[in-house]
Model the fold of this input.
Amino acid sequence: MKATLATRLALLTAGIGLSIMLIGWGAHTAVALFGDVSSKLSRVRIESFQTADQFRAGLQELDLLLLRYAVGRDTVDKDRFLAEWKKHDAWIDLVRPSLATDRERALLDLINQAYDDYFSAATNLFVHREPDLDPLVRVSRVNSASQRLLDLAYQLAAAHGESLDQFLAGSQQSLRSFRTLTFGALALLIAFSMAIAFLAYKELVWPLRVKLVETREQIVKQEKLAALGMLAATVAHEIRNPLTAIKARLFTQRKLLPQGSPAAEDAEVIGNEISRLEKIVRDFLTFSRPAEPVLVEARADAPMREVQALLETSLQARGIRLTLEGEGSLPVLMDTAQMKQVVLNLVQNSADSIRENGEIVLRVRRESALRNGQSQPVAVLEVSDTGGGIAPEVQARLFDPFFTTKERGTGLGLAIAARIVEKHHGSLRYQTRAREGATFGVVLPLAK
Done:
């Protein structure tokens, strides 16, 4: 697995872990929030009832006891009033710390003060501190203090309602934030999961499928080549023996023929055709039983320099310039003689494509290629030309044995070159565009 793939998978996995943590934290927060809302809501409602409605009910009971005392002067009513007053006065002090807002506490302080004024008016009614004062005035003072307490109690109930509304609004905002957080984390989790699935498919599954298809194609091709090679070897052996005998008899006969006679010219043509047949037989045997390369460490440009020295003069006669460039000092393991045969074949094909007046560039460069599932440094031996390129219909059969577009070709040059490169643990590739030339590249692993 490539380092970049491992890094991306690690980052995506960390993202999924973070999303799961966010969802877990959100769920924990939601449970705590729901419990807090439930407990606070119940407490607020109870306190609202105690500090508002119960207080009003208790105040009405105290007013009734005062009225009964004012009418009947019964000390039992007075004692009950004093007992109820003390109970409510203690309750006011007790409930104050549990109030939620400053406004509620301020109103309770006003109620506590008004409650003391109410008690003062009530005790004045009991002990007659102002004997000349009309009893109706005393009762009116009590009623006035009672009415003020009732007004404050209503204000306290309204404050409780506002506090409850604020609490509910805050709870709803928290719930909305939790919902946004949960859906956001869930969306991230889905996105990261889809990204991991896509990355795994793109980087792991798809290359394996492509490699499987290529492997099957190579197996089928190797089976065909093996069968074809056996046939070619058999035919080549059967043809080579008669050719040897014909060539020997022709050599004897040519000594007996006068120079310049028609018979001597015919013998020359026959000799050339016999040589061509011998070359075809040699190609058949090379294709069917390629020699195992003797791999030694050498400069990547070594076979290119030999080919340049061999063909530069003859190509110049046709107006074709042959140049060499690039990182020639790259070390590779190869059989220099066999690789020279590959480069020679590629240069000759380029020259045939150009015909006259053009350029062939031999180039060596370093790059990284995927080999055995890992990125490794390789040397690329390129042969680029300015010829007419390769037609699409020809590309489909470019490396097929015995397929050729030349009048006197055997169709084995590229097939043999590809097999030689494969035995060097490399690959042969090409790039071409119509009327813009072609570039063949021999990819070889660098020597360690």
In short: The chain is about 70% helix and 10% strand.
